[in-house]
Amino acid sequence: MNQPPSEATRTPGDSDVARQSMLTRAILALGITQVIGWGTLYYLPALFTRPIADGLDTSNATVLGAFAWAMLISGLLSRRIGALIDRYGANRVMAIGSILAAVALLIQASASSIVSVWVSWTLLGLAMRAILYDGAFAALTAISGSQARRAISLLTLFGGLASSVFWPIGHGLLQHLDWRLALGVYAALNLLVCAPLHFWFAGTSPKQTQHSANDDRPLRVEQTSAEPQAQAGLKHPDTASARERVVLLLGALFAFHSVISAAIAVHLPGLLQSLGLSAVMAITAASLMGPAQVAARSIELLAQRRISVVALTVPVMVVLPIAFFPLMLAGDSAAAALIFVVAYG
User: Fold this and answer.
1) Span 315-332, pLDDT tens digits
2) Backbone angles phi and psi of 307, in degrees to 5
3) Cβ(140)–Cβ(22) under 8 Å?
4) Assessment of whether the complete model's pTM goes beyond 0.70
5) Is the dihedral of CA 313, 314, 317, 323 positive or negative?
């Protein structure tokens, strides 16, 4: 009985070459859109909260409340956005999300009251769920199949630089432009750069296209070489109630982690200034978070064939709270601030 050729001797066919080329273009294009998306949306309040609050004669807390509302909207719409991506493809949903983000930023730029800011962040909550990692990961998974983990890791190298790129850009814009014009620049980036890149390069593979829009079964992604080893050491819950508890615990873990992440994203530059750093030094120090993220993700990328997702996640979650100790113990030390930023990143 003839055996199929081994991976070592098999010559990639045209479809393999085309898929790899498509994946490379998608990673590069989505990398650009992730830097812009995270930088102009998620990291926006860190620098723009105070100018917007002063311009509208309201409190910082009221403006930040709109951002918190956007995070809630984004979470509540997760399943719906996922269903839309399954039905219409990531490229269409992400392109529309970028257009919606641009419109929302223009609404905020022209705001005459805090009501418009809240309307803007309501729309941005919807847009962020579509255009940030969730939509991008779905697009890469559909294109890359068994290479999904590596493709996603490569993409996060770009996303990790968003704060490092856009906190200095935002600071520079606010030094030379009114906050309304600066928001207009951010809107233009989402409309003129992100929307076209999403539409052209976040497309789905032929295999995904053949997946019926009416079929709710998830696509199977082949395991990487590290996954069977990880699965062999795991004890899977064998009852519905046990599986439900696992899902609830994972949901709680991700929720608490997201609270910390969002709080740091909003307050980090201001927090560093409160420790005695100048505005420029605080922005510079805060921007070190990006390179630290990229360094950690590069290590994960190199080691992922030998380290399972579970083996990686547990120590990372343990290290995260330890990163805050330098600030707690050293107070207003600039060195402690830098150690915290790098360790947290």
Assistant:
1) 777 888 888 888 777 666
2) -120, 125
3) no
4) yes
5) negative
